[in-house]
Each structure stands twice: as structure tokens, then as C-alpha cells.
Specification:
Layout (H helix, E strand, L loop, with lengths): L6 H7 L7 E7 L4 H10 L1 E3 L2 E6 L4 E6 L4 E6 L4 E7 L3
Parallel strand pairs: 1-6
Antiparallel strand pairs: 2-3, 3-4, 4-5, 5-6
Length: 87
Amino acid sequence: MGVSISDIKYIVERPEIFGFKVETIRKDNGFNTVINDVKQNGIRIDNYWVTCNKDNGECEVVDDNSNSLIIVNFIKKTIIKYVTSKL
């Protein structure tokens, strides 16, 4: 991927500087299984938990503050933020 794991935090916080497009998707249900998996198997960087898959060029990031799931795709240069909508 050409990016260090510690750079993920800066890409998530300031995607426009790195040329990433951001899309936010609101869901009524959470992604608890994926979020728990990332927290169990990931690396913690400040308030983020990160796991990466070099084969598909993606990292899954969980924001500990909001418990939202963020998918960073380095091939497509996109960031998808999944947040639960509160009705």
C-alpha cells in the first residue's frame, strides 16, 4: 500500500489532503461484529483501532469515540464512514 499504519489516523482525519473522497452511510443497525473484530485484532492508534488487508488494499478503522466503522480503500482512494442513525 505504501502507507504506514500510523498514517491511517491522518488520512481518516484529513482525507482531502491525501486526495480521498469521503462517503457517509447511515444505518439503523450497527456493525457490531465487524467493530468488535477490529477492536480485538487491530492495532490501537490514539482513539482509533485499525486492521488492514494488503490483498484488497483496504483498512478497517473503528473510531473509539463514536464507535463508527470507517473503511479506507487505497486502490479507489475512497473513505466510507458507516454511522448508526438515531431515530
